[in-house]
Structure formats: structure tokens, C-alpha cells
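Query structure, 503 C-alpha cells:
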């Protein structure tokens, strides 16, 4: 069949009442899982995967696609309203989303995030449909050397996230790297920093770090400092119509949107990195490109747009490698891979030939899920905003209970509940000492990948570092790393000079 015939067949497969209802149900359930701290799109897909067994292939896969799209987008709700990212892909959304909410612009912040989540998803799906084979082919050229270079380059961008002391920012990143090394070492599984505890052998999980850092530390902070006499609403807000952005603002953000979507696509295509990195990198890129970088972190839409465009565009990027090569880009697409195989589809180069109509049906399901996500989240705005009307002395214990449930449900271990308390205490202490927490999180996310690819590369080269500098892609990113480090040094010197002048 040609492309037009496969597209027509895909439409016929998707546009049945049952399939569309399953997509709607999947998106709504995904949004709920994404919005609740500790739960995630991966957990939603994992729980619903057995339910899809008894369905027709297109019905079951459509349900999973709806869960995926809704779960990634749903994280913005708690990120903006509660300063707790519902998923790792929404971490950077908290940086400007929550300050906007505290200024009484919660409606605007959520509406902008919803709109650019939708647009980011559309860009990702368009890339998936149009340029999947060449982009997937480029991803095949990335080996251990290239992945290491990308990881270490991403790590050097920490200086852009540090608004105060660069030394404290780097120290925070080192703490994150240390936490990422706890547990069995990659390749040889040698136990490190486990102190004889079997529970530590598997290391710390990213979800427990995020819950502890953003949720538990905030609860500890409120318990320590008190509610400041506030037993009413958390903060005020003003209802707004539309999507909270004017046409002039929209046109002014086109470059930011395209750049962020491109970053999300690129990171999504590279297996194992995921949206937890792409939203941070796109936020850094937007801050570096801005004429007024100091506004970031104070409540500007630029940061929200960068984060939400990137993490949702990553959906299309992750599916490119999944469908074209059979390689899952993240944990959620790993679950989707299992769903595809269960329903008789083998992802890879021959998928488009053997199951062309099903593949185009998946493309259409993604588009439908995107529109449903836009409408559902926009219509549910008043319900979401009601969170702001709950007194904090009632809201925070509920959040703590959800965090405990989410931490336990991640791996069914009581140990993870202790981990979120541990990370909460550590984050509270670091915040009290004026340490930035974001570098620690980025160090934790990138640390495991960086070490794994370094060791793999050294094994392939029999201990030689030369291939890291001679392979073109790896050499390019290591060169960018050197430039980034130089820029950080210059920034530190200038900051020291300014402080002397002000004194």
C-alpha cells in the first residue's frame, strides 16, 4: 500500500466509537497519574497494559497512547500549583510556573503550559510522521563515546542554572553525582556505598529523589517555619479567558517554541536520556538565548514554554526510535514496546511494510489524544485551580500521603518511603544553606548515564581515551563542553568583580 492508502486505512481503524472513547479515557487517566506526585505516565501504562490484552490491537494500543500523552502533560498541573513536578519531565515547569501562580497568575500559567504542551506534541508527531527514518538512522550513529560526550556536555550547562554562588552550584551537582553512584556499578555490578544494605544495592530512584526534593522538603520547610498565620487559601488567583497569551506574545515565542521542541525531539530520540533531561536543557537554552535572563525563575512564560514544548515533543522523538528501530527511548516507551509485541506488532524497519495501516493508526491516535488533552485540561481548569482554595494545613498532609503512596507504588518497597524522607531532609538542609537544588537533580539524572557510557567506551577501546576525541560527534560535544566550561569560568570571574565593585 502507498502512503495515502495506509493513511486511509489508519483513519478507518481509529474512527470508531469504542476506540475514540478509549483514547479519551486514556488521556484523562494519564492526566490524573501525571498530576499526582509520585505517580507517572510509566505507572499508568504499566497498570493498564494487562487491561489491553483482551482488546483488539488498535483499541489496546490507542488506550496506551492516550495514557502516554496525558501522563506527560499532566505533570504541569502540580508543577505550577504546588511546586511539585508530577513527572520528571515537568521539573523545569516549576521554575517559572509556580512563581506565576503565586503572583495570582495561576490561570495564565496553566493555560500557557497546556497550549504549548499541545503544540509540542503536534511538532513531535509531525516529526514522527515525516522524518522518522532519517532521524532514527542518525541515532544509530551514537555509541558509548557519543552518549558520554552528550552527557558530560549537559552536565557542564549547570552554570546556567545557578543564580547565586557558582561554587555552591557545582558542589550541589557533585552531591547529585554521588547519589547517582549508590548501588550496583554499571557493567560489573560491584556494590558501592551500600553499607551492607541489600535495599541500597539497586540504588536510588529518580522519582524518590524528585518527591523528596520538591514535595517533602517543602513540607519540612513549612513545618519548620510555620504557616505564617495563613490558614486560608494558599494564594490568590484571577480567572482569565483564552489561553493566557496574546498574539504578539505568541509570535514572539515562536523561536523559543521551535528550539525547545527540537531539543525535546533530539533528546527523545536518544535512548535512555528522556524528558527529565530535555525540559531542563531547553530551559537552559531559553535562558541563555534571552535578552533578559534574570527574569527566568521569577515567573515568565518563556520558561514554561521551553519546558512544556520540550517534554511533549519528546513523545514523538521517543516513538521514532521505538517504531523505526524497536529501541525504546524511555521507560514509558519500553512499556509501549511490550504492548506492541503483545498485540502482534514487531517494531523495527519492517514495521511500516507489514503493519502500515496500524502504524498510521497510531499516528492518528496521537493526534486525537493531543486534541483531547488540550480540551480536557482547559475545561478542567476550574477544578485544578480549586487546589488553591484548600488551606495549606489540610493540603500538605494530603500531599504527603500521596507522596508516600507514590513512592511505595514505584517499586513496592517500604525502603523508598524512607528515601523520600531522606532526600527531603537533605534538600531542606541544602536550601537552608543557600545551595541550589536543580544542579543536584541534573547531576543525579546524568551521573548514571555518564558513568555507564564512559565504562562501555573504555571497554571497547581497551582503556584508551583516544576514540572519545577522534570520533566526529563525540569530539564535537566535547568541544562544546570545553566552551561551556570556559563560559562558566568567565561568568564566575565577572561575578566576583561585580561583588567587589558593589562592596
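Result returned for the query:
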Amino acid at each position: 500500500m502507498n502512503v495515502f492508502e495506509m493513511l486511509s486505512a489508519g483513519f478507518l481503524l481509529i474512527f470508531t466509537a469504542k476506540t475514540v472513547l478509549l483514547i479519551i479515557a486514556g488521556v484523562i487517566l494519564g492526566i490524573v497519574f501525571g498530576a499526582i506526585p509520585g505517580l507517572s505516565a510509566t505507572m499508568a501504562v504499566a497498570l493498564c497494559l494487562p487491561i489491553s490484552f483482551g482488546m483488539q490491537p488498535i483499541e489496546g494500543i490507542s488506550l496506551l497512547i492516550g495514557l502516554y500523552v496525558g501522563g506527560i502533560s499532566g505533570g504541569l498541573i502540580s508543577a505550577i500549583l504546588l511546586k511539585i513536578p508530577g513527572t520528571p519531565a515537568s521539573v523545569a515547569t516549576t521554575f517559572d510556573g509556580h512563581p506565576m501562580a503565586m503572583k495570582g497568575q495561576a490561570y495564565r500559567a496553566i493555560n500557557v503550559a497546556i497550549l504549548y504542551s499541545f503544540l509540542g506534541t503536534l511538532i513531535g508527531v509531525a516529526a514522527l510522521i515525516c522524518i522518522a527514518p532519517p532521524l532514527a538512522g542518525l541515532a544509530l550513529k551514537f555509541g558509548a563515546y557519543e552518549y558520554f560526550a552528550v552527557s558530560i556536555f549537559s552536565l557542564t550547562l549547570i552554570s546556567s542554572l545557578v543564580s547565586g554562588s557558582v561554587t555552591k552550584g557545582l558542589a550541589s551537582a557533585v552531591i547529585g553525582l554521588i547519589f547517582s553512584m549508590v548501588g550496583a556499578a554499571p557493567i560489573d555490578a560491584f556494590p558501592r556505598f551500600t553499607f551492607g544494605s541489600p535495599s541500597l544495592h539497586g540504588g536510588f530512584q529518580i522519582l524518590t529523589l524528585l518527591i523528596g526534593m520538591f514535595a517533602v522538603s517543602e513540607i519540612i520547610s513549612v513545618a519548620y517555619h510555620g504557616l505564617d498565620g495563613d490558614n486560608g487559601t494558599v494564594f490568590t488567583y484571577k480567572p482569565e479567558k483564552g489561553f493566557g497569551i496574546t498574539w504578539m506574545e505568541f509570535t514572539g515565542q515562536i523561536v523559543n517554541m521551535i528550539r525547545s521542541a527540537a531539543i525535546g525531539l533530539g533528546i527523545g530520540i536518544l535512548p535512555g536520556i528522556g524528558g527529565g533531561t530535555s525540559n531542563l536543557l531547553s530551559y537552559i537554552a531559553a535562558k541563555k538565548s534571552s535578552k533578559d535572563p534574570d527574569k527566568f525563575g521569577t515567573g515568565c512564560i518563556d520558561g514554561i514554554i521551553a519546558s512544556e514544548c520540550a517534554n511533549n515533543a519528546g513523545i514523538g522523538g521517543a516513538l521514532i526510535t521505538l517504531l523505526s528501530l524497536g529501541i525504546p527511548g524511555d521507560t514509558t516507551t519500553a512499556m509501549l514496546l511490550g504492548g506492541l509485541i503483545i498485540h502482534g506488532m514487531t517494531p523495527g524497519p519492517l514495521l511500516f511494510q507489514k503493519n502500515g495501516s496500524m502504524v498510521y493508526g497510531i499516528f492518528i491516535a496521537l493526534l486525537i489524544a493531543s486534541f483531547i488533552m488540550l480540551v480536557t485540561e482547559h475545561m478542567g481548569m476550574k477544578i485544578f485551580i480549586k487546589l488553591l482554595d484548600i488551606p495549606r494545613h489540610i493540603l500538605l498532609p494530603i500531599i504527603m500521603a500521596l507522596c508516600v503512596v507514590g513512592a511505595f507504588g514505584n517499586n513496592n518497597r517500604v525502603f523508598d518511603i524512607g528515601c523520600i524522607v531522606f532526600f527531603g531532609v537533605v534538600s531542606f538542609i541544602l536550601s537552608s544553606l543557600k545551595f541550589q537544588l536543580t544542579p543536584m537533580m541534573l547531576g543525579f539524572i546524568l551521573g548514571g548515564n555518564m558513568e555507564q557510557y564512559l565504562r562501555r567506551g573504555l571497554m571497547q577501546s581497551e582503556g584508551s581515551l583516544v576514540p572519545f576525541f577522534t570520533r566526529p560527534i563525540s569530539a564535537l560535544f566535547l568541544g562544546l563542553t570545553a566552551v561551556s566550561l570556559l563560559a562558566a569560568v568567565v561568568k564566575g570571574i565577572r561575578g566576583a568583580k561585580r561583588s567587589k565593585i558593589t562592596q
